[in-house]
Amino acid sequence: MSGDDAKSLIELAVTRFQEEVPALEKLKLVFAIELRGGRDVQMYRVELPGPKVTKGIAEDARVRVEMQRAFFNVMAKEAKAPDWREAFTYGQARATGNSQILQLIEHVVDKHEERLRLRRARSSH
Question: What is the pLDDT of residues 61-97, one digit of tens each?
C-alpha cells in the first residue's frame, strides 16, 4: 500500500466516523496514526477538524492510534462506530495519550450509541 492510499483511507475513516458521530465533527485535535505492516511502520499526522492528513511524525499529537495496516484497510472502508469500539476493546487497535481526550471521545460515542438504541426501541413499538 502506498502512502497516498493510506492517506486517502485515513481521510475516509475519519470522515465516515465524523458523519456517524456528528458531535465529534467540531473536535479540535491533532493525533498520530501508526500503521504497521511486517517490519514497515507508516506514520501520519491527522488534524481535526478536517481531517488534514500528512505523512510523517506528529510531534504535536495529543493521542496516538496504532494498528496493523491490513486491519486498518478493512476498517477504514467498512467499520461503524461499534466496530471501532470493539477493535479498541479487544486490542486490534490501540489508543494512547491524553486520557481526558480519550474519555471525551468514548463518552460522546457512548451517548451516540445510546441515542441510536432509544430510537430503534421507539420505532419498534
Answer: 999 999 999 999 999 999 998 899 899 999 999 999 9
Mean pLDDT in residue range 104-109: 93
Buried b (16+ CB within 10 A) or exposed e, 44-60: bbbbbeebebeeeebee
Number of Cβ within a 10 Å radius of residue 70: 13
Residues 10, 17 contacting (CB under 8 angstroms) = no
Give domain 3-123's CATH number out of 3.40.1260.10, 3.40.50.2300, 3.30.1050.10, 1.10.10.10: 3.30.1050.10
CA distance 96 to 98: 7
Residue range 103-118: average pLDDT? 89
How does residue 113 score in pLDDT terms, banded at 50, 70 and 90?
Answer: confident
| Cell numbers representing residue 12 in the block | 475516509
